Amino acid sequence: MEKRLIIAVAVSFFILMAFQFFGPKKSYQKTPAAPSPAARTEAERPIEPQNEYEPAATGSGELETAASAGEETRIETENFDLVFTDRGGSLKKLYLKKYQDKEKEELLLSRERSGRRPFTVTSPVVKGLGTGKYRIKTQGGGLGYIITKPGQLELRKDFKFYKSSNIIDLEISAKNLSNNTITFSYEMVGPSGLVGTSRVAGRSFLQADSLIDGKVWKVKSTKGLKERAGNIIWSGLKNRYFTMIVKPFSMLRSVAVEQTPDKNLDTFLNSQQMSLAPGEVNTDRFLFYAGPLDEKHLEQIGYDMNLIVDYGFFGGVSKALLAVLRFFHAGVRNWGVAIILLTLLINLILFPLTIKSFTSMHQMKKIQPHMQKLKELHKDNPQKLNKEMMELYKKYNVNPLGGCLPLLLQMPIFIALYQGLMRSIELKGANFLWIKDLSSPDAVPIPFTLPLLGNSINILPLLMVGMMFVQQKISQGLTGGAVTAEQAQQQKMMMFIFPLFFGFLFYNMPSGLVLYWLTNTILMTTEQTFISKRMGSN
Fold first, then answer.
1. Neighbours of 106 (CB within 10 A)
2. Domain final position from 279, 311, 343
3. Which residues contact residue 161 at a Cβ distance below 8 angstroms, ignoring those fewer than 6 apart?
4. Assuming Cys at both sites, which of 33, 278, 336, 492 could form a disulfide with 302, CB separation 3.0 to 4.6 Å?
5. Domain's final residue, options 311, 343, 372
6. 273-314: pLDDT as tens digits
7. What's the rounded Cα separation, in Å, for the pair 221 and 197?
8. 242 and 373 housed in the same domain
């Protein structure tokens, strides 16, 4: 029975990994657009913010000097530190101020490659729009870029920034400078150059999501260009904690995603074809969001941007667990302690199932001698053996799956918590005891270098492995004593293999997750010890 229990847990863990890649598609429920006040205000670009959404001095002379030298233009708000370039009139870098690590701003976007920066516009009709040098024009605190192709087209980009918002407004205007009616269309680079896409526990969180025709189109990797047409509500790019989303207010022809040589993703928004008479101007408006991948935050913006947040198959359970975790944190003000309290609560709720599981294992131990006799008696008649075994279970009121099913019922909770903690931005930079960041492994420096491990060692996974050894030994006490020599040897092997297997899987996982599993193992071991002594006295 112990062997079956171990196999069941191992299989359950592999199910956990599978759920990261498979799950039901999110359905789209249209909700009214509810932009934040920042999206509706007429405030202009702030340089030195005084109060929320109020325009400040433009500093236009400095901007014009930087532009004339063909250099970068820096825009600073309470939330952003932005670097624009006149080459292509595009965004080169974006820093988030409120998510700093050791006084260093969070670099969310970085794209050195010309022609591939966000807001770069190219057209099959007019050449040189993507990499040409744009003139800069400041008006009322906003930032404008203009490029003129004599006798063809004038393209203008007007950016508007807000003091305390994660939103940027963009208007792209195309004016026909020719004497004839022209058919014009363009492609704009959407979210791209997203940084912080390193793999965590073997998993990359980089993904391009677009809400098209009421469904979220997801792209994690691609060979060549993937394109999708339809009613495009928004297109975004996300990593583990952050996202960039572009919301168009005009009908687009399609959205496309392409993988870069460094395994990053670029998105492209393709406009409809437009017919422009001589001197006619067409203006398209876009809303750009850059910030945390937080469902509540995105709900406030509207346009169903919150659908980009995905906790997987057990998303509802993940949200509930995160809500409880935040409740505990509000009281103790430490995310490590909050994780421990959440683990205690989960174990308390599941304690009746734990008792049932261990009781079933104890009952199986009692009937082991009878089972062994039946196996010897009917070793040449499997059908007869199965019938007699069922009679034996019925006689002693034993459920052969009783020791496994309660444990399997806990797996959805673990999967949901795994998803929630892996994406919970609150853990980023949160410390606990010697752990400096609960969203990363608890690497502790050592004065020498170890093979495979390097010059640091992760303490929590090693503690977890040690506790799992103890737990396995106690579990064998519940089922041992009435097993064959071969079964005893198998149990002894699994007592070493099982903890080492989990230690390998958890070694590079975020310490917040390992803290949960370690705490859970300690509680389970304590419960097993208590139940084992109680049953041993009966």
1. 21
2. 311
3. 44, 45, 46, 75, 77, 80, 82, 142, 143, 168
4. 33
5. 311
6. 999 999 999 999 999 999 999 888 899 999 999 999 998 888
7. 13
8. no
